[in-house]
Amino acid sequence: MSETNPKGWRENIVLLGALAANLGIAVAKFVAAGLSGSSSMLTEGVHSLVDSGNQVLLLYGQRRARRPPDEARPFGYGRELYFWAFVVAILIFAIGAGVSIYEGYLHIIRPEPLADPLINYIVLAIALLLEGSSWTIAVRAFDKTRGEMGWWQAIRESKDPAGFIVLFEDSAALIGLLVAGIGVWLSHATGEPRIDGYASIVIGVLLGAVAVVLARESKGLLIGERADPAVIARARDIVAAHKEVTHVNHVRTIHNGPHTVFVAISADFEDTLPMGRAETLIEDIEAELRGALPQLSSIYIRPEKREGAFRLPASA
């Protein structure tokens, strides 16, 4: 079964919206930084440029993850998206946070008087508008998927890194813009250009914290996470509902992609059940599972004695 998301192209709206916003903002910030000499504005430009690259990587990861299973990857390529999500987290930390802190440090040890801050304020206002629009799109998209869960729980349970990465990036970008604006204003108000450098370091620390959280979440997905407990319970109930099944030993799942799940089920069948009937029954159960839980891309049902049941010694 293909890893294609049933929502089709709509899954890219959040990423494409963020990409368009960040590219425009990055250019504006670099121009403003060059004209005003603002360190925090320069680091904000780097931040937006890194975010743009991240969205490109996530779009690439989504495209690669849609490839159907083949001989080399019989369970598909869905988890490749998780790899690129982890790379994004590393880039945010290494480039976004690293450059921001380094530029702030340079501005502190070699402060330069700032030019007219008006261009900075104009760019910051435009950036807030564009970032706010991207953030709103990301929030609405994520809100539709979280159901009754709280925000943090939904992020921890999410199997689609593209959604929560953009949400984190846009949230960090909005906070970074506010910090940059405060840094520019205080630098001119007090006549102390080092304040702008300290603002850059604050932005870098913020990006570093976001990168650590994203890396932790992406690592969990890359290693492998179980399906939603409700999906596992539903699969168990479907198998147990058949009278020929005397006991369901376990239902083990792992996400092969945001929308596809591999499931391995161990069940104890009646001892008197003929082999031919058992094969037909397993096929019927698989069909029922796919109908009720379409995210189950690969299903394996193994007949086994009930776990913990008494067994005669091999020499008996």
UniProtKB/TrEMBL annotation:
<protein>
    <submittedName>
        <fullName>Cation transporter</fullName>
    </submittedName>
</protein>
<dbReference type="Pfam" id="PF01545">
    <property type="entry name" value="Cation_efflux"/>
</dbReference>
<keyword id="KW-1133">Transmembrane helix</keyword>
<dbReference type="InterPro" id="IPR002524">
    <property type="entry name" value="Cation_efflux"/>
</dbReference>
<feature type="domain" description="Cation efflux protein transmembrane">
    <location>
        <begin position="18"/>
        <end position="222"/>
    </location>
</feature>
<keyword id="KW-0812">Transmembrane</keyword>
<dbReference type="GO" id="GO:0006829">
    <property type="term" value="P:zinc ion transport"/>
</dbReference>
<feature type="transmembrane region" description="Helical">
    <location>
        <begin position="81"/>
        <end position="101"/>
    </location>
</feature>
<dbReference type="GO" id="GO:0008324">
    <property type="term" value="F:monoatomic cation transmembrane transporter activity"/>
</dbReference>
<feature type="transmembrane region" description="Helical">
    <location>
        <begin position="12"/>
        <end position="35"/>
    </location>
</feature>
<keyword id="KW-0813">Transport</keyword>
<dbReference type="InterPro" id="IPR058533">
    <property type="entry name" value="Cation_efflux_TM"/>
</dbReference>
<dbReference type="Pfam" id="PF16916">
    <property type="entry name" value="ZT_dimer"/>
</dbReference>
<dbReference type="GO" id="GO:0016020">
    <property type="term" value="C:membrane"/>
</dbReference>
<keyword id="KW-0472">Membrane</keyword>
<dbReference type="InterPro" id="IPR027469">
    <property type="entry name" value="Cation_efflux_TMD_sf"/>
</dbReference>
<feature type="domain" description="Cation efflux protein cytoplasmic">
    <location>
        <begin position="229"/>
        <end position="304"/>
    </location>
</feature>
<feature type="transmembrane region" description="Helical">
    <location>
        <begin position="121"/>
        <end position="142"/>
    </location>
</feature>
<feature type="transmembrane region" description="Helical">
    <location>
        <begin position="198"/>
        <end position="216"/>
    </location>
</feature>
<dbReference type="InterPro" id="IPR036837">
    <property type="entry name" value="Cation_efflux_CTD_sf"/>
</dbReference>
<feature type="transmembrane region" description="Helical">
    <location>
        <begin position="163"/>
        <end position="186"/>
    </location>
</feature>
<dbReference type="InterPro" id="IPR040177">
    <property type="entry name" value="SLC30A9"/>
</dbReference>
<dbReference type="InterPro" id="IPR027470">
    <property type="entry name" value="Cation_efflux_CTD"/>
</dbReference>
<comment type="similarity">
    <text>Belongs to the cation diffusion facilitator (CDF) transporter (TC 2.A.4) family.</text>
</comment>
